[in-house]
Amino acid sequence: MFETVYSFLHQYYPELILLFTISYLIGSMNFSIIVTKFKKANDIRTLGSGNAGFTNVLRSVGAGPAIITFAGDFLKGVLAVYISGLIIQINPAAAGNMFILKCGAYLSGFACVLGHLYPCFFKFKGGKGILTSWSATLLIDYRIFLIMISIFLIVLIASKIVSLGSLAAAVSYPAITFLVTYFSDCSENFNTAYVLMCTAIAFIMGAIIAYKHISNIKRLINGTEQKISSKKRGE
């Protein structure tokens, strides 16, 4: 099976490499850093929790810059996945082939999140990738997105801790991807190879995002992680 998948993907290597590179560069445009430098002439990574993301911008800089950060980080995931479809279809063999289009979308989403986490424009120190991963997932498969956002909201409402909701969504991402693709998409166009490919990328993405939350995990264990109802600064 893997030899078949390899031989199939081999003909799309130039397009896959191109979309991965472009998506990574799009992801590397970290709006929290850009907006904060414009607003306060400071690097968001030196403020508050030190995280280059929406939550820290909201707490450390204000609602206006946070909204811009939210929109930018969300839209870049959408843009990367959308562009991936255009790039893949440069190859005439991709016309109407949903398998390779989906492969390209997943790879593009992963590259964009990777760019957000480790941006080449900002010394490879970025955010935690939640918003960007959600927006990419929304465009790739809205069913997976709806389940993930539901898990996030349920955990957030129950715990009032943003990071715990984010971690719950990230950790459950591979399982949700497997269940949705296996039980809904296994057919002539989407076989077990497709399911394994989607699940593998979801697992890697979820694991990296969880890794970026190590500081939050330590605070959760110690019981010092900030709740959204708290007036105390930090993340």
Characterize the structure shown.
- The chain has 235 residues and is mostly helical.
- It has one domain (2-222).
- Helix content is 72%, strand content 0%.
- The chain has helices at residues 2-10, 13-27, 31-40, 54-60, 63-88, 98-117, 130-140, 142-159, 162-185, 192-212, 214-222.
- Helix 2 (13-27) runs parallel beside helix 6 and helix 8 (142-159) runs antiparallel to helix 9 (162-185).
- Residues 230-235 have low confidence and may be disordered.
For the secondary structure, the number of strands is 0
What is the C-alpha radius of gyration, as a whole number of Å? 18 Å
Structural class: mainly alpha
Strand content: under 5%
Main sheet makeup: none
Query: Structurally, how many domains make up the residues?
Result: 1
Write out key terms for the chains shown.
11 helices, single chain, 235 residues, mainly alpha
Question: Can you describe this structure in just a few lines?
Answer:
With 235 residues, the protein is mostly helical.
Could you outline the blueprint of secondary structure elements for this entry?
Blueprint: H1 2-10, H2 13-27, H3 31-40, H4 54-60, H5 63-88, H6 98-117, H7 130-140, H8 142-159, H9 162-185, H10 192-212, H11 214-222
Helix pairs in contact: 2-5, 2-6, 3-5, 4-5, 5-6, 5-7, 6-7, 6-10, 7-8, 8-9, 9-10
